[in-house]
Amino acid sequence: MPKTVIITGACGFIGHHVVEHFLLNTDFNLVILDKLTYASKGYERLRSAEILNNSRVRVFSVDLAHPISEGLQQEIGNVHIIIHMAANSHVDHSIEFPVDFIHNNVMSTVQVLEYARTLKHLERFFYFSTDEVFGPPINNTGYKEWDRHKPTNPYSASKSAAEQICMGYENTYKLPIMICNVMNVFGERQLYEKFIPICIRKILHGETIDIHCYPGCEKIGTRFYIHARNVAAAVLFLLQHGKVGDKYNITGEREVSNLEMAQFIAKVMKKPLHYELTDTASQRPGHDASYCLDGSKMEQMGWKLPVNFEESLTKTIEWTLENQEWLEKFNYKRGRTHLIAKAKTITWTTNPTLEGQPPALATSGNNWFTTGTIPISWSTTRYVIDAKISAARATTFISFRDSIGIIVV
Ligand SMILES: NC(=O)c1ccc[n+]([C@@H]2O[C@H](COP(=O)([O-])OP(=O)(O)OC[C@H]3O[C@@H](n4cnc5c(N)ncnc54)[C@H](O)[C@@H]3O)[C@@H](O)[C@H]2O)c1
């Protein structure tokens, strides 16, 4: 009898690769639970990877920060494995909206754990965490699984908190918890706001790429990268070989500096690279220049990365160039927002030299705003518009001309 596996957050980037891998390499029946945030792009990844209509996949849109309703529990039925990946994952957003962000990541974990407690046949509860919980490395030494956590921003703090809560449930309620800490993931259908898609887009348009560095730009920041399909294979390996109550580091093949990564992408694209070194670590507290994990535990268990770094990166770049809709930016919503605003009917004029002053905003064509009063506040990274949208139009998709993040309350 095939096992039923819940994968939370699988409309997202890594999750949909895990679903794809499991469909090809197991007989599992898969249940996707996802709240469809802006980062999910709706069902677009599931559609693009031809997962959505697979008879072994069922998808439910649900906010896991709330208790899973009885009706949904009934609908899902027996569950053998839960892989909990749902989370907000963008560090900048966590710095800007820490309360919503932490609430989402911690409460969704608590509610999924509470649901897990009701399951009679649960064999594994697999919590998907990040290398960022350990903070930057000391003397370039990779952290081992049970080393202390030292998160440096609300995102990594929320992931660390969720890990601790999982372990608390493992001890108290004997839930079959397993945790993995994963390095920087890349692959097809990654969201436009991550470094590799940003590099591809900017190189394509001849724009300058910011290369994040250590304080004083003395050293360029680095990451260990791993392709999402390697991650998916590692998750399956751990379900087969890992121990309940233990933690595992899923590590990238080798360390790549931000500049090396941009150069590699430009080389594959056969285009010139324009870049500028930026001192992110000093200018933007909460942004670490490097992370490092020790991968020896999984190696000793016999784990090997199935796909090589250069090959998987080249394929990802080529795929993205053929599917450029994945490079398109869009606006994100927050809190009480009922609409992601997108489009052409509003003319939006900005002058970046007007630091500290609101940008001019003119509407043309349809007037989407019900009142003439549109308080506009300015931030250096994002223009924030508080506008009242007529209830009748709240479900309509509109789009703004540019990629400036916009919040419609
Ligand atoms: N991307 C990386 O490099 C990386 C590295 C290590 C760990 N992680 C972790 O992997 C997981 C997946 O990351 P990703 O890059 O695929 O992120 P993603 O943003 O692409 O996907 C996350 C998904 O979770 C869903 N989600 C968020 N909150 C939810 C909630 N309350 N209820 C239901 N669904 C919710 C979103 O709708 C989205 O589809 C996250 O837990 C992240 O912390 C990511």
Strand order of the largest sheet: 3-2-1-4-5-6-10
What portion of residues is helical?
25-40%
What is the beta-strand fraction?
15-25%
Q: What assembly state would you assign to the polypeptide chains in this entry?
A: single chain
Draw up the topology in text.
Elements: E1 4-8, H1 13-25, E2 29-34, H2 44-48, E3 57-61, H3 70-76, E4 81-84, H4 91-96, H5 98-117, E5 124-130, H6 154-173, E6 177-182, E7 184-186, H7 195-204, E8 208-212, E9 222-227, H8 228-241, E10 247-250, E11 255-257, H9 258-269, E12 274-278, H10 280-283, H11 296-300, H12 309-322, E13 341-348, E14 361-363, E15 376-378, E16 383-385, E17 398-400
Parallel strand pairs: 1-2, 1-4, 2-3, 4-5, 5-6, 6-10, 7-9, 8-12, 13-17
Antiparallel strand pairs: 9-11, 13-14, 15-16
The structure holds nicotinamide-adenine-dinucleotide.
Nicotinamide-adenine-dinucleotide binds next to helix 1, helix 5, strand 5 and strand 7.
